[in-house]
Amino acid sequence: MTRHALLLVLVVAFLVGAVPGTASAEQLRLRAAVRALPVADETPDGYDRDLFEHWVDADHDCQDTREEVLVAESRVPVDGCTITTGEWFSWYDRETWTRASDVDIDHLVPLKEAWDSGAAGWDDDTRERYANDLGDPRTLVAVTDNVNQSKGDRDVAEWLPDFGGCRYVRQWVAVKLRWSLTVDPAEKSVLRDRARHCRNRVIGFTPAVTSRPVGMGA
């Protein structure tokens, strides 16, 4: 293995949030995956976006997480430290953009929603890994900026995209399972109802390792 390849493996392991060999992929059909989501009331107190350090440059290649997603999702080749042009298809509204400034990188499960659903108990490192999760392309999505802004911090009980509703539900469930996040009763009800009207596809996900601050009990 070359030095570059070894570095890439180590970076991916960091971003996935797991040490190689400690987590294996799991598969559930959509409806079973919804049933598997644990229900709990949300715990919104204390949220601050700055508690999730995001858009870091984990592999020190001059591209931060936002740029990495823009590179990965562009339909035409793009390169450089700061991505300004490319071609991005926003499946939330079926719009295509060629200027990076017209595109936001959406945390499909918003940072505040993650906080309310379990991330309040994570340590800083786990929250950083969640906010910059390149290990699963469903966590971060390039979408039209004003659509992302209209979504805000709302969950699936409060907001769904105009298009790709079943895809959104599948990805929401996958991200929540990957990061061991809970759902509130209203969220669970909407997911269960929506799943009944979607194809019962297999959802694969690799659980991320989550850690609590030293000295905090389980």
From TrEMBL:
It comes from the Bacteria. The keyword Nuclease applies. Keywords: Endonuclease, Hydrolase, Nuclease. The keyword Hydrolase applies. One of its GO terms (molecular function) is endonuclease activity. Residues 98-191 form the GmrSD restriction endonucleases C-terminal domain. Signal peptide: none annotated. It holds the Pfam family GmrSD_C. PANTHER family: AMP-DEPENDENT SYNTHETASE_LIGASE DOMAIN-CONTAINING PROTEIN-RELATED, SECRETED PROTEIN. This is HNH endonuclease family protein. It comes from Nocardioides aquiterrae.
